[in-house]
Amino acid sequence: MLAMVIDDSRAMRSILRRIVTELGFECVEAADGQDALDKMSEGPVPDLALIDWNMPVLDGLSFVTSVRENRDWRDVTLMMVTTEGEHAQIVRALAAGAHEYVIKPFTPDAIQEKLQLLGLVGVEA
Amino acid sequence: MSVLALAPEEFKCIVDEVWASLLVPVPVDADQVNGEAATFVAGFVEIQGGWVGRVSVETTDRGAVAIASQMLMVPTDELTQADLVDAVGELANIVGGSVKSCVEGHSTLSLPAVVPVQEIGDHEAQLEVVSQWQEHPLRVRVLAVA
Questions:
Q1: Region A70-74 average pLDDT
Q2: How far, in Å, CA of B72 to CA of B59, rounded?
Q3: Containing domain of residue A111, as a range?
Q4: Does the CB of B21 have a partner CB in chain A at under 8 Å?
Q5: pLDDT, tens only, A14-48
């Protein structure tokens, strides 16, 4: 399984990379939404994208919208990981096609639990 | 009337939660900021909406190096200036996002910026948390912009 971490902060990408790698994913990184779209176009297409909202060039919501407009990418699971915690914004992201939503700060367990809910990692006995 | 509905103890909980998720060992409370003011950097974000202000995370140059090293898991001698800016800015971004959620109505959060602390502006500090991480001072402030 391949995860793409999309965040303009290298530090946050590093933290999320460590978490998903521990959970068994291979991981690639993108510095903003446009960088992510470019890398997905080049391939390989990730199984999971962890997406920040507030980024330069192309924000996370626009990225989600673009991914959902491309039928070739319909199997990509989209999880927002962002400081954006307003209820209305969460609803917007989910309506645009995000599957899950995690608000920073988070713990590794919170990421794992969301991925378990999505069926992307196993549930520990 | 713009409103930031955030009590001091709630702000401290926000800061403690961010520290607990990103810094090991967890920073401890401090009575005052230690260190030469001239060496402090401030990562900050701006909130625009029902309340207008800045949320800053401040530490010394050496503190920024230690924070970036831990967040990136990179030895201190391999860090770049961009890494320090990135790490301190991301801390401000995360604290600022939590503060924004306590502003009534819709508001927006800027991308983070990092400046010498003297350049953050002479704004009234509405809330402040002072901590010590390893030997490094950490101060987080909510600054009202008139």
A1: 96
A2: 17
A3: 2-116
A4: yes
A5: 999 999 999 999 999 999 999 999 999 999 999 99
Q: Which domains occur in chain B, in start order? A: 8-144 (3.40.1550.10)
Chain A hits for B65, CB-CB cut-off 8 Å, are none
Tens-digit pLDDT profile for residues B99-111 = 999 998 889 999 9
Here the ipTM equals: 0.90
Q: What is the DSSP letter of B39?
A: G
**Secondary structure, 3-state, A30-83:** ECCHHHHHHHHHHCCCCCEEEECCCCCCCCHHHHHHHHHCCHHHCCCEEEEEEC
Show residues of chain B in contact with A88, CB under 8 Å.
Answer: 106
Count of domains in chain A?
1
Average pLDDT over every residue of B31-39: 76
Cβ separation A107–B101 shorter than 8 A: no
The answer to whether residue A96 sits within a structural domain is: yes
Question: Is A122 among the domain residues?
Answer: no
The answer as to whether A123 is a domain residue is no
